[in-house]
Amino acid sequence: MTILKVSDIGISFGGLKAIDGVGFSVEAGQIFSIIGPNGAGKTTLFNVISGIYEASQGRIELAGRDVTRLEPDALAARGLSRTFQNLQIFQRMTAVENVMVGRHLREKCNLFADLFRLPSVTHQNKETRAAALAFLDEVGLRDQADTPAGALSYGACKRLEIARALAAEPRVLLLDEPAAGCNSVETEEIDRLICRVAAKGIAVVLVEHDMKLVMKISNRILALERGRPLIEGSPGEVRANPAVLEAYLGKHGAREAARA
Amino acid sequence: MLAALRHRYGILLVLAVIIAALPLVFPSSYYFRVASLVWVSAFAAIGLNILMGKAGQVSLGHAGFFGIGAYAVAIGPTHLGVPPLAAMLLGCALSALLAFLVGRPILRLKGHYLAIATLGFGVLVALVITTESRWTGGPDGMSVMKLTLFGWRASGSDTWYWITGGLLLAGTWIALNLDETPTGRAFRALHDSEIAARVTGINVNRFKLQAFVIAAVYASLAGSALALMNGFVNPDQAGFLHSIEMVTMVVLGGLGSVVGSIVGAAVLIMLPQLLTVFQEYENLMLGAIIIVSMIFMRDGIVPVLSKFMTGWRA
Amino acid sequence: MPEFFQFLVSGLTIGAVYALVALGFTLVYNASDVVNFAQGEFVMLGGMVTVFAHAAGVPLPLAALVAVIVSVVLGLSLYWLAIAPARGASAVSLIIITIGASILLRGAAQIVFDKQFHKLPAFSGDTPVQMLGAAVQPQSFWVIGGTAVMVLLLYVFLERTLLGKAVLATSANRFAARLVGINTTTIMALAFGGSAAIGGVAGILITPITLTSYDVGTLLALKGFAAAMLGGMGNPLGAVAGGLLLGLLEAFGAGYISSTYKDAFAFIVILAVLFAAPQGLFGRRTIERV
């Protein structure tokens, strides 16, 4: 079943087309990767899909409904979660509080109940915290639950963002370079984590530079170059495509790679 | 005592003990008066801290709401025949409504633009109060009828000491309540990363507006309390410098720290009292103290002290 | 029509002062990201020092020079004693520091000088010039002309000198400027000194018309800030345009609508503009990078 359908998306900044005519669709439980050299528009595409930028053309459908013009919070309410390439952690909160914020949409939030901290609020708080701890466990951060997020390592922050996104129990999860700056052990953990997430039926859209990881776990891959789609296909198809090699390595590099 | 300050009820208990015990060492009614001033200012600062320290939104015009509260209890009974307590509530409602209406467009702004917009709002309120002298007495201010409840007249500095002390306890309790609730977390989240807050489903405009209205209601109540206590109001209470004084209390005490706001208010209210010996030099000293304390305690007194005491480093 | 012209001239005159204050704001803001609320105090100093030096028998031009030097020295001290030591503090903390500085300068002025209003003689007499049916104070020409000269000097400095380019580079990207060997600390000090000089000159020019006292700085700072915002914070030409616009709004508003709410127009307009165009009239729309 197709959960996320992006068609003919385009956006320009000051006359410059950052993305032009990009489209793809992702099914529940699928891992869909977007690759391309730096500046290909991968993160911009994520920003359009998650409602941070407004597309100048095209259409985005989430679970069959048009969500093209929705704000990020409305999109989140429809089941879209994401992480960021440059970390967007709530620095002054503890790790578990970060994930509790991720539960925001799953909580009842009533100003007056909160101001007087009625018993129902205290009760709900316990539930939220328990749920958040479970998500921290999922990403392996359970024992750092009460550490201030600002004091966590880079890799831990990356996983914390994933836990926060998962806490919303999304239908679609956008991951922007989850393995960037991680060592091979950490990358392997993230690899397993993504597969577990997909196995739950969540559609994962992944932007990642680590080709080994991408080729290993993706169901389908879309290669972008300068904001335009280059090719979409299975990992095997994309790997064999000379245009992809050229985009990454340049003409000379592509010849070298073909010879090897 | 330090450990007690980590828990909501610990803080409230310590504060209640301080409020109850201070009169034992007060030699004269002057001290009751200064302490009441501290309680009222701290109350307003705590509200502003919810907006600035928790939700991360600056307001350089919050004295406007303070002024609305103050003039509500002045104008209501004198010109409209509304009893003081009802006037206080009306002032509160007016502040909340105004905050709601003005906050919608203002809070879309960021950084210095938000600063100038809130500043402009505050200055406008002060200008209206100064200009509409038929109602407000103009630049000279006006006197306020005493608060009477069921025939009992609230007057005398010790009476107001207990009233304002009680008010401060209630305000502290509410502010501390917010911390571990969905609303409180939403405030702090949008402070740290608005973009991340939005993609986790937080309607940032709604929560900014809530924080703004809460802070306005706090300021309005504080204004009413001060006016009833003094029996007098003047436009300076709504003015730019008072807005700045409130912001300084919050930042000096420590952004986001409820205890900090109380400490910040205490410092900023008591200093001028101590400095009156210097009379002429009051402004000079006040300016110098603000600069020096902001340079050396830029995170605020309470956070700096607590870091120093516990040795905790982030 | 004469009435219209009268309002136009008085609007441009007061607007020129707002423009200079806004220009001072912009210069400091561009170099250091600090919104300097003490900017109005330099206008006060320019006027007060000239008044007292002149009263002590110093010839007016020399008194004016002394006033500018005093302003610059205090501007530099503000930077070295209060802003530089607070490097890395949050924007709000820095704003509070400059407000502390403004309170301090005001306190110092009330001790060194007094709490009275003071007037300077107009530079070229008080006989009004008749223009298009309006009586124009000769001092208005000094204010408007002086402002034009200041703006031109600043423009030449920024565009035609190496040091000026360094200021521009610093405002564009402080980190990159440091990488290419620009001493950004010097640039920031220069900006504070320069904006103090601009403020001082504004104070000298306007005092014959509006009078001065130790506490005129606050409202001037607020309106200068509003003018800078109106023009789009960080845009020098926008600041000048914003200042003139604000002056005209006030003059016409006071003339045609209500003089009791003269001071309110600036802030009503600022709120209206910010609601409609959150980046100011001439500010660039920036894209949030994530």
Could you walk me through the main structural features you see in this protein, from its secondary elements to its overall organization?
The complex is a heterotrimer of chains A (260), B (314) and C (290). Chain A has a 6-stranded mixed beta sheet, with helices on both faces. In chain A, a hairpin with a 2-residue loop joins strand 4 and strand 5. The mean pLDDT of chain A is 91. Chain A folds into 2 domains: 170 residues, Rossmann fold (3-Layer(aba) Sandwich); 82 residues, P-loop containing nucleotide triphosphate hydrolases (Rossmann fold, 3-Layer(aba) Sandwich). Chain A is 42% helix and 24% strand. Chain A has 260 residues and is of the alpha/beta class. Chain B is mainly alpha-helical and 314 residues long. Chain B has one domain. In chain B, the strands form 2 sheets. In chain B, strands 1-4 form a two-stranded antiparallel ribbon. A two-stranded antiparallel sheet of chain B has the order 2-3. In chain B, helix 2 crosses helix 8. Chain B is globular. In chain C, helix 1 packs across helix 6 and helix 3 crosses helix 8. Chain C has a two-stranded antiparallel sheet. Chain C has 290 residues and is mainly α. Chain C starts with a helix and ends in a 14-residue tail after the last helix. Chain C contains 11 helices and 2 strands, in the order ααααββααααααα. Helix content of chain C is 73%, strand content 2%. Chain C has one domain: ABC transporter involved in vitamin B12 uptake, BtuC, CATH 1.10.3470. Chain C is globular and about 60 Å long. Chains in contact: A-B, A-C, B-C.
